[in-house]
Amino acid sequence: MLPIIGQVLRISFPDRPGDGEYKATVIAFDVEAIITTIPMSKTSSAQTTAFSFVRERPIVVRYHGPDGAIVFFPTRIKTLSVDPPQLEIYLAKPEDIHREQRRQYVRVPVSLPIRIETYAHGAAKLYDLEMRDLSGGGLSILLPPKISLSVGEDLRARFTLPNRNIFIDVKCQVVRISDRNEFNYAVASAQFIDITEVIRQKIIQYTFVRQRELLILKQDISRS
Predict the structure, then answer these.
(1) Cα–Cα nearest to 66, from 181, 216, 172
(2) In terms of Cα–Cα distance, which of 189, 214, 192 is closest to 201?
């Protein structure tokens, strides 16, 4: 359940909860550490960041698991460097990695057209596919025969939320791919990366609308 390259981490300090949370993106791993971008906070300056991330300081790292649940673990800072600009934090032991059972975002089934753009092997490719579910944290896509994606692969997703005809253009990263079924179809699950909170809230509002639609449909079926 470790994070993957490109995933956004939320870092906080158990010794000073008032310092708030910082966000950093995983860029690499080594044998004992996760390497991230320089953590940033909307309320902190670069100097405050450098002061906060001192060697051996205890931190708590949180991120989304493949199913949308919150995963977290306590660890310590290994080093913060300016050249190259990066943070190294010690890898957690498996027994120290915890998972909250609740999901932060409600996932709803949908059947929406989606256009994805991939960048494998340095060449951009466009595919018009079908979205299977959607949440404020990510989405899943039906992969027909002869179209494949890889875990960790970045892609760009474009789709329209039908309730208000809102066009969404967002970057994603593939976190899980199911086995192919008897018809050679698979489902790829992807999480949003670098998404603005304005766009996320529009998606969440749609999921609430979709939940109500499904509830009404279920009630109509039960009465018929």
Answers:
(1) 172
(2) 192
pLDDT tens-digit readout, 100-132? 755 567 889 999 999 999 987 778 899 999 999
Query: Which overall architecture, per CATH, does domain 8-103 show?
Result: Roll (2.30)
What topology does CATH give the domain 108-223?
Thrombin, subunit H (2.40.10)
Query: pLDDT of 159-176, one tens digit each?
Result: 999 877 899 999 999 988
CB < 8 Å & 24+ apart, contacts of 26-31: 27/86, 29/5, 29/91, 30/88
Nearest CA to 142 out of 152, 129, 151 is that of: 129
pTM greater than 0.70? no
Contacts of 26 (CB under 8 A, 6+ apart): 3, 4, 5, 6, 7, 9, 34, 35, 36
* Maximum separation of any 2 CA atoms in the chain, in Å: 68
